[in-house]
Protein 1
Amino acid sequence: MTRTQLVDAIRHKNGVLTKTRVERNRAQKRAETAAEKVKLHERLVAALATQDVPRLQRLLQVAMDQGRSIEDILKRIEDAVTAVYHVKSFSATEIDLARVMWHLAGDKGAYILHKALGFPSVTTIREQSQSTRPTIHPSPSTPTLEYITRNLLSMFPSNPTRRVCRCGQAIMFDGIAIRKCMRRDDDHMVGACRECTAGMDLSMSCLENILSLARAVRRGDNGEDPLVHFGVEATVGAMGALRGIDYHAYPFSVSASCKAEKASEFKDYLELHLLAWKMVCAETYGDIWIVGCDGASVFRGACFQLLMASTFSDDLRAMLSPLRGLNLQCGPDDVVHCPDPKHLIKREYALSLI
Ligand SMILES: [Zn+2]
């Protein structure tokens, strides 16, 4: 081997050595990285196996959608366990479930679900429901025509987004027991009985309105008869379509009562609701055919006074009069009373016991 050949051989050897060292260093770094990843995966598995992570599936889904690394996911899991991190994204099922719980169990039920299982809070449910949920305001006092039409138009818009099939409608009233308390709604105080608050200003525009209502209610504390009562029952008015599909009852009117109302007063109440529907909804959704209510004597008395006051129009009377024994009495616009037969049977049974 000549001197030149020897120098070339040494250079080649040095090049191979350098290349080998570089490859060895790279392989070493890859091995270290792989070992770190294995450790991270082991930590992840240990965390999933041992920690109670709220809404784990959603947390992982959100992290993967964002392309987060295993290290980030681990950090989020640790933060979720210590309640530092909350997944703010909710699936449609979670929102629907929280909404159902909210409707069934109110704010407290939704709060429990939120705290225990990380479901949407009441605020989130409200925000999510804003676009689809019609707003129904309870009446602060005796409902006015303006109040009823506003609620009706919220529930039954004049230009509905879906196709509406016009048909006969049933208007129904029932009483629901409520908690005796006042609350604020739309800058008004609601929860006081409609019978005793006529003429009172129940808006929260000034302190004097609030104090005068409080004084009227608290008179009972001194042994005197209160001038105004807390409502013990909410009279709920609802509409139901008389057809084979989508015949659910849609509530649109809520008003608190202390149950001191007379039948003649409820007759006016009923008449106002019939008028409101006729004014703003009948043309689009159909006329009211029947009025339904439960067996309460005030409801029945009012229905008797209003819906037995006249007879059917000529066309209907001509068709129905051959039916011997049929009651041909009705109210305005041929509306008839349609009590639940269950209440008739109950009343007959009660009378038979006397
Ligand atoms: Zn009252």
Protein 2
Amino acid sequence: MRVLGAPDLRTTLDVGDVDALVERLRPPAARADPFVVVVPAAAAATAARTVSLGRAGAPGAVGVVHASTLPPLALDVVGDLLAGMQDELSAPELLVVTEAVERSVVAGAALSTVTRLAEPTPSMAQHLRSWWPTSRFVVTTHPTPQIAVVVQGEPRGLRLPDTGADLDVWCTAGDEPTRAVAADVVARLGEREPVEVERPDASRVRWATSRCTELVAVPHDLSLVVRTALDAAVECRSCGAPVAWDACRFCHARRPDAIDRIDALTAGDRLDAIDLTDQTLDSTDDRAAAGLPAGAA
Ligand SMILES: [Zn+2]
């Protein structure tokens, strides 16, 4: 799991390593700012436990787990890009940006078989096709989960977003037959040559086969994604973190405009609450202390 935030915290830890996290959180300066843990969704429960125990061992520390659905290569690449933004952005800002960057990438793999693939789920026909040794598939998880069968060199029905953005592309080295298919997808994504990297260990597990080439494309200029995401977030009234959800992920306070919506909806309920208060307050002094007009019952 990747820990982002205060300079003392920036590191990659084993997802279950509570001691290492507590050690990192030991200096008071490390606890002054919140941190974000970015972890694959499959390991999120373990990471949440580690963060919870880590915080218990380091009073005052505030940390949030981001469960990423990105496949392994994409998570490595996006994680590196986020790590490069740590000097400019606070941890709460990084959390907002992380989700925005995830929505802006194209991530997937070329595979020779989908028989054991869990997500997205292959159709029966795609299962059967996997039995032909020459079969190839293009699978994407972002921005849309889909499986396209390659027929005569063409991934049939593959939908790639027309982002209009200049994309940087990475793909894994190793499996020749699927690499050619991946190269074709990369060519459809733009002009740039892919950066070839070693296949992450988790890749074989994610795609349920070693006969795969994973790829990810990320907008070359992420500044627009960052700016748009932060502009759309509202400031938490309680802790000041940018909030892009119904409630603040750091202090759990409801989003300010969500509070306004609830206030408007439950005005009647609040009047009921005042009526109830009236029945329990007898003297004028009590009523004044409660901020209620005298003798209005
Ligand atoms: Zn907050």
